[in-house]
Amino acid sequence: MEAIFARRSIRKYTSDPVKDEDINKMLQAGMAAPTGGNRKPWHFIVIKDRGTLDRLAENHPYGKMLFEAPLCIAVCGDPSLTPLPRNFVPQDCSAATMNILHAAVALGLGAVWIGLALPEHYDMAREILGIPGNIVPHNL
């Protein structure tokens, strides 16, 4: 309960790298999220490269905090894994994201959800991160 109530959107970061073991714990937390029909349609992209983080910050209107962040996890979904009419990819990716954010708090890290809600956001993330067209980037 502590991590849930302590979670805040943190937009200022230190330059300290995030430990690989902490990254793995956050990813495991994301993968522990519930999914519609247990389809697990998400993909996670871990971004540590300074140039890539800067490109994301330059190209997302609400992502300027990425100029300071030492890490970003892109949460993406594969709609082919949850065929219509049961496409729960947005909900599944949102649940995974919340688990990642709560894990960050539990690990003593600050984090913020940066949404990718418009077609131009999807296109920007696909281009910068090399995401194929059949995968939908949901947030950073």
Secondary-structure blueprint:
Layout: H1 2-6, H2 20-31, E1 42-47, H3 50-59, E2 72-77, H4 89-106, H5 119-129, E3 136-139
Description:
With 140 residues, the protein is of the alpha+beta class. 40% of the residues lie in helices and 11% in strands. The chain has 5 helices and 3 strands, in the order ααβαβααβ. It has a 3-stranded antiparallel β-sheet with strand order 1-2-3, with helices on both faces. The protein is globular and about 45 Å long. The two termini are 24 Å apart. The model has no long low-confidence stretch (mean pLDDT 95).
What key phrases describe this protein's structure?
140 residues
Order of helices and strands: HHEHEHHE
Report the principal-axis shape. Answer: globular
Question: Helix fraction?
Answer: 40-55%
- Which spans of ≥5 residues are poorly predicted at pLDDT below 50? none
- Beta-strand percentage range: 5-15%
Instruction: Quote the distance from N terminus to C terminus.
Output: 24 Å
Q: What's the gyration radius in Å?
A: 14 Å
| Largest beta-sheet details | 3 strands, antiparallel
Strand tally is 3
In the sheet with the most strands, the strands line up as 1-2-3
Can you give the mean pLDDT? 95
Helices and strands: which structural class?
A: alpha+beta
Give the number of helices.
Answer: 5
Short description:
By secondary structure, the chain is an alpha+beta fold. It is built from five helices and three strands, in the order ααβαβααβ.
